[in-house]
Amino acid sequence: MKIIYAGTPDFAAAALRSLHEAGHDIVLVLTQPDRPAGRGMQLQASAVKQYAQQHGMPVAQPVSLRLEGKYPDVARQAHELLDATPHDVMVVAAYGLILPPSVLAIPPLGCLNIHASLLPRWRGAAPIHRAIEAGDDQTGITIMQMDEGLDTGPMLLRQELAIAADDTSGSLHDSLASLGASMIVDALRRLEAGALPAQPQPEQGVTYAAKITKEEAALDFREPAAVLERKIRAFNPFPGATARFNGVPLKIWAAKAEPDDRPAGQPGAVLAADAGHDVLVACGAGALRIAQLQKPGGKRLGAEAFLQGFPMQGGAFELPSG
Question: Where is (6S)-5,6,7,8-tetrahydrofolate annotated to bind (predicted)?
């Protein structure tokens, strides 16, 4: 099939690669404009753009597709390009721009979206993070036909994936990217054969995955240890859970919740931080055993190595105000 592909990060690059290797004709790739990245803040192309350029695919990077938005001239040029590019279908994965009705109406077979949740649960920007944070035991991929709403379109394919007890957003992202890359090839095969029926999303069970902010990554040890463990996993690798100790902001990369029957302590108090041990911190319920930390400008270290240069015995983590 002739495909216009719209996507930006690694998650989307995996599906683009899968479609290309399956023999589909990628006639145009839409991706977000290059962004400053790294210590030097040099402009960096998206993962999707890098793959497209390596394989000779034409690329367009409009800042907007909304004709009535802030950049109407850019959007108009993008519409003209889409209209002038013969294609069968548009495939979208983590593109990052809103597709207005005027764009959704262009592809003859519509716009198919690869969404990293079992819709209607976790519509929105951060379904992988929110599934881990909420303690879900499963997630998955939904291939949906896009409409004007926020991830509200009819479902075409849906496949579950278990969330492991040690999954982070990083590891779950990789598993879901691989699953989505496989499913979109299957979806297009069925679509071409006229065997891909659409099913409306159920009205029950709708949740929204709000965009992750750095502010919410600050740990509050007044919360139960189990809640904090999930947050640490959910915010790894971005934005990284944080906590302050003696005024020093630390990143917390790995931890496990201990049972509620551990010796009581004031939330945030370090119950143990001896050589050869993890850092055990009292929480609102239970205790959190921190296994990996990082100080500003330093490397991620296991707790034993970290404590050699950053003693914590008898201290306490600060509690966020408010």
Answer: 117-120
Question: Encoding tokens for residue 2?
Answer: 């002739």
* Cis peptide, bond prior to residue 100, ω within 30 of zero: no
Provide the H-helix boundaries in the chain. Answer: 10-21, 47-54, 72-84, 101-104, 127-134, 169-192, 225-234, 303-309
Cis peptide preceding 197, ω within 30 of 0: no
3-state class (DSSP) for residue 87: coil
Structure tokens at 94: 């983590």
Binding site per annotation, positions: 117-120
CA distance 95 to 100: 13
For 73-103, how does the pLDDT look when each residue is reduced to its tens digit (9 = 90+)? 999 999 999 999 999 999 999 999 999 999 9
Please enumerate in sequence order all residues whose Cβ is within 8 A of that of 292, keeping only pairs 6 or more positions apart, or say none.
252, 253, 254, 255, 300, 301, 302, 303, 306
Q: Where are the domains positioned within the chain? A: 2-209, 215-309
Architecture of the CATH domain 215-309: Roll (3.10)
Annotated binding site for (6S)-5,6,7,8-tetrahydrofolate: 117-120
- Counting Cα atoms < 13 Å in the Cβ hemisphere of 111 gives 25
